[in-house]
Write a structure and sequence with these properties.
Layout (H helix, E strand, L loop, with lengths): L7 H27 L4 H11 L6 E3 H8 L3 H13 L3 E5 L7 E5 L1 H20 L9 H13 L1
Antiparallel strand pairs: 1-3, 2-3
Helix pairs in contact: 1-5, 2-5, 3-4, 5-6
Length: about 150
């Protein structure tokens, strides 16, 4: 059985998705740059703060989340550490592992940037499907009620 040919509409749909995705990434890059960090630094902070079940992560876990090499993630953590955004701690259960924790400064920055990202995702709703949309809306409603 052969696959049906891709139609022009199929290509247009994929093109539109990639275009909107790139626009969002570009917007994010501009926002993080204005905040004094790179987009990768913001992503590192976001992945630490949002790690399932705890608010810290190991370098290996962060490399996985960033889809990056371990040594590149170590360098990124070092840059964030120099900015006072994260700190390293010896692993609780395995002293060879390194836990990466947010500092107060890092936590404040990621909180502010994450809120702006959530608001932008909700603003562009319908442009492309946003995973976890209901959870994002719940967070916006909680903020609006404060």
């Amino acid at each position: 059985m052969t696959e049906p040919d891709f139609t022009h509409e199929d290509f247009a749909t994929l093109s539109q998705f990639r275009y909107q995705l790139r626009r969002f990434v570009h917007w994010s890059e501009e926002l993080t740059h204005r905040a004094g960090v790179t987009n990768l630094q913001y992503l590192l902070l976001l992945h630490i703060k949002g790690f399932p079940g705890r608010e810290w992560a190991t370098v290996g876990e962060l490399a996985e989340r960033l889809v990056a090499k371990h040594h590149g993630t170590v360098a990124l953590v070092t840059r964030c550490e120099k900015l006072g955004l994260v700190e390293r701690r010896a692993g609780r259960s395995d002293g060879r592992a390194v836990e990466v924790h947010l500092t107060r400064k890092g936590a404040r920055l990621v909180d502010r940037l994450a809120r702006e990202h959530r608001d932008e995702l909700l603003r562009i709703e319908g442009t492309f499907s946003v995973p976890g949309r209901e959870h994002l809306l719940r967070g916006q409603h909680d903020r609006d009620e404060r």
